Amino acid sequence: MADISNNFVGIKSPNPFWLASAPPTDKAYNVERAFEAGWGGVVWKTLGEDGPPIVNVNGPRYGAIWGADRRLLGLNNIELITDRDLHVNLREIKEVKKKWPDRAIIVSIMVPCEEAAWKSILPLVEETEADGIELNFGCPHGMSERGMGAAVGQVPEYIEMVTRWCKANTRMPVIVKLTPNITDIRYPARAAKAGGADAVSLINTVSSIVSVDLDSFAPQPTIDGKGSHGGYCGPAVKPIALNMVADIARDAETANLPISGIGGITTWRDAAEFLALGAGNVQICTAAMTYGFKIVEEMISGLENWMDEKGHGSLDDVIGRATPNVTDWQYLNLNYVTKAKINQDSCIKCGRCHIACEDTSHQAITSMLDGERHFEVIDEECVGCNLCVNVCPVEDCITMEQLPAGSLDKRTGEKVKKDYGNWTEHPNNPTVVAAE
Amino acid sequence: MAGSAARKKLGKKLEDGIVAGRIDAKSAEQNFADIHPPMGDHEALVASDRCYFCHDAPCVTACPTSIDIPLFIREISTGNTIGAAETIFEQNILGGMCARVCPTETLCEQACVRELAEGKPVKIGLLQRFATDQAMREQKQFFPRGKASGKSVAIVGAGPAGLACAHRLAMHGHQVTIFESRKKPGGLNEFGIASYKTVDDFAQHEVDYVTDIGGIDIQYGKALGGKLTLDSLRSDHDAVFLGMGLTGVNALGLKGKDPEGVEDAVDFIAKLRQAKSKTRLAIGRRIVVIGGGMTAIDAAIQAKLLGAEDVTICYRRGQENMNASPYEQELATSKGVTIRHWLQPRKIKTKAGAVSGIELEYTQLNRGKLEGTGATTTLVADQIFRAIGQSYEDTTGGTLKLNRGRIQTDADGATSLDGVWAGGDCTDSGDDLTVTAVAQGRDAAEAITIALNA
What we know:
The complex is a heterodimer of chains A (436) and B (454).
Chain A: E1 6-8, E2 11-13, E3 17-19, H1 28-37, E4 41-47, E5 62-66, E6 72-77, H2 86-99, E7 104-109, H3 115-126, E8 132-136, H4 150-153, H5 156-169, E9 174-177, H6 186-194, E10 199-202, E11 206-208, E12 211-213, E13 218-220, E14 230-233, H7 238-249, E15 259-262, H8 268-276, E16 281-284, H9 286-291, H10 295-310, E17 338-342, H11 352-360, E18 368-369, E19 372-373, H12 387-391, E20 398-402, E21 408-409, E22 414-415
Parallel strand pairs in A: 3-4, 3-16, 4-7, 7-8, 8-9, 9-10, 10-15, 15-16
Antiparallel strand pairs in A: 1-2, 5-6, 6-14, 11-14, 12-13, 17-20, 18-19, 21-22
Chain B: H1 3-10, H2 25-31, H3 41-49, H4 58-62, H5 69-77, H6 81-91, H7 95-101, H8 108-111, H9 113-118, H10 124-137, E1 152-156, H11 160-171, E2 175-180, H12 188-191, H13 202-211, E3 216-220, H14 230-236, E4 239-242, E5 248-249, E6 262-264, H15 265-274, E7 286-290, H16 294-305, E8 310-314, H17 326-334, E9 338-340, E10 343-351, E11 354-366, E12 369-380, E13 383-386, E14 390-391, E15 402-403, E16 406-407, E17 420-422, H18 434-453
Parallel strand pairs in B: 1-2, 1-4, 2-3, 4-17, 6-13, 7-8, 7-13, 8-9
Antiparallel strand pairs in B: 5-14, 10-11, 11-12, 15-16
């Protein structure tokens, strides 16, 4: 049986599935239920500085995007950091950690951008014997208006500065949580590393308006006729998160910086993809908020079974395995030629491949043959784009078949070259310097 | 329970002969409730999401009225139910009834690619009902009456063909007068369809919805023949559309007159539809229905639902030859109806002037030809329904060319007589389906308009 125990910057947990800092980790009651369900660790919902508790809105905090049968695809929220007393949280963290020594407890923190504020809270957190801290530089709503959260995460210099303060003032590992609401994720990641961060975690939520009520003409969730942008999460943001994780994993400056992957992870497969792109473990929130804590059983069993089937003994055999295969477009092999092929036995004749290709692409799929509806790829026109595969409702009905080297590409009239060749050396590339 | 008390509780359930009150009011209500209850909002959203929005969709091709099914289903899935209804009504103004009575399992839903993919088609019929019900409930009228053309068109028969024709003619601004032989409109929608398929007086509501466009006058109790002649219609109007359906019922072809207790299934079905109280309808204890089409099925199921103990459909050929769809056959057997094949009626048995049974002869195919084998069997029965088809009875004075016993029409519904069009079951291109009659009425209206504007 594959070993899925996790060691993330020295923090050990029985599996790589942590609950992200969010409503599910706001108090001992929820966290203990999570541990009972089997979660490997939690990042406790963000603590703010000592003083009067945070105030939340008293109307709806969440909005959503649904797929068929109201399957929740994306969630957005305008909830702030914990609205419970700092000392109640600290006491509970200490109690739960003592009770569950084999599980990871990380404490998320967000205090004003002043060294004194961080200096005063860090010893209090340290005293709980939590395993580490996560700096919330990601929250895009509410707190960012007060110069915290994403307001810090969008300025690499601030990230570096605060990270450095934390490293100087605590023995605990420091994980810096990054916001995706920037143009290039590598800059904040590099700043975190420069500040001495032990790891980064990403992504936090994406700034979003999830929908507009067409009767009241107000964004949703609506509070007394008004709405504010929220933080978007759930399955819909996974592709954005995967790309950002890969960007950091393959950036020379941050190549060895551990990453805790976050963003729309709903199944073991999603988690495995994050690990493969370089995440050392994963954090989950929306899936738990949709289905409850029990989903971790599927995640654990799915990951173990997949690793067993593929012969991966431990997480180290998986982590970062896909990172070297992420490259820039200019290095993709232009001599790799594919054509779509429709399996007529599994085709149900819906015609979606045809109309997608005909209306919006390359006119490379027939719709009729001898007066009968018939869908077949016209090799002379097919550029191998994969759109038909993506719109076909039948799995594996349309496949992309590679043309072997030496065979004729009917579209170009040329033989497929066997050698690797990319844009950097392509004759049409004006920046290529011709060999003398 | 003591024996006599128990027997008393059975009431008339097991009484021989044709008697009323075999079921109580509660059973009547349950038995004749909507057979396919309408979809709820969420159910419709989930069902509509299953549609693949096919290109050149086979369901549209399979629909005699060519409703743009993928479009109306997509409209439902986006919460635009009224738009969906308009898409349906554009092609088929009787889309509400068709949603209830179309044999979708042999039309659109059979053609659905998901039927091919997984044997579970998109529920097109129920979705169509979902959309049309909402629009009719909200009294949404999508098609205004056209600017008066000054032309007048006579229609014979207020059934599906006549109503569809009338509505389209009104859209084009023509004044329409429908001559209907019965006291109520709707034709087979009102008189010829099993009660549980169209509950709550839907056929009448639909007629009101269709005629709400204006410019359609229905005159009741006026049949073609007698005072009202085709010639007079032709001289009083600019065009005539015939949609009177089939008025004759095929006989069993046995010697002598059929005794009391042998009835036409269509009459039974009509009587049932018009009955205020189902418990007061008399029905036999043991019933035999002769035939293999939808009428046979509708009569047999409803006889069973009225409390008949045994109901047997006897059909002279095999299952594969039955006009009733496999789905309808299954529905009948699920209600307790027995279906027997390769049997043809030979002799009605009577006792004291009333039906007591029927002797049937086993049949077989001999070089593709059906023949009796000589071997017989007898079923005990106190009531027998004839459901072996209906026929066209000419009331036009023999002026129209017929084809295979029905009015000959071209693709536009034009008959052999100038200025006379026809559609629905009375024509040679009718196929005993409401939806086909609607398509033919509609298309004839377009052809009439072109002719009148020429």
